[in-house]
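anyone seen this seq b4? input:
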Amino acid sequence: MCKFLSAVVTKSGEILCDPEHSDSHSELLEHFGLRDDELSSHLERFAKVQFVPPEDGKDVASLSKWTLTVDEATCPDWLDADKLRPRLEALVSPHILSEGERPLLLGGWWILAGKVQVGRAVNTVIKSMNDDAKVGNMSGSSKVDSMNGSSKVDSMNGSSKVDSMNGSSKVGHMNDSSKVGYMSGSSKVDIMNDSSKVDFMNDSSKVGYMWGFSKVGYMSGSSKVGYMNGSSKVGYMNGSSKVDSMNGSSKVDSMNGSSNG
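predicted toks r here
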């Protein structure tokens, strides 16, 4: 599976990537007009690489802790990883915010770490939130790919999306087409509206309020859903999971442990 940061390096020395829109090698190859053919190996022309931050979310701002891998069966002779690494570090470095305050992030892709405080993020892709990083409000098509440590988003609106949450991460408010892909640790979502969706929640995760077409795919541990309406649906709940109220076409397929509807 392709991870951030995915790139394609050509034999001529170009680094082809687009972190704001995709970390898929196949999409990057198609976008930049590169393809395999039967006459020669693609390694004679380009190679796929990944420059990945620490999985535990620690020391993300320290690029020396990142891992560079060549995503090929063999590394071509023309690719010098020692020379490529500082170029990738220079590419990523301007997008890391680890201290101070930023009233507004408008577009682009970012990595938040340390104690950086962001007032608003509009149409922004946040690849990773770590440590004590905080965003006050996310709107438009803003998206968070990963949250670690005590990172926090107070409010999300529009088509905002969180793909992964770990540790004590928290989302205070999600609206419209907002979505949480994965929540773990003591993660918590207080309010979700309209087409909001939670696919997986674990440990002490909690959803306070869901509305419209909201859906919870899987909840475990002490997970709890306070109120669901419209076509809301809970697929599976375990442990001490609890649903207090469900209306409309809401549905619970399976509940175990001390769960109750």
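The first strand starts at residue 6 and ends at 10. The chain has a mean pLDDT of 85. kinda curious what u guys think
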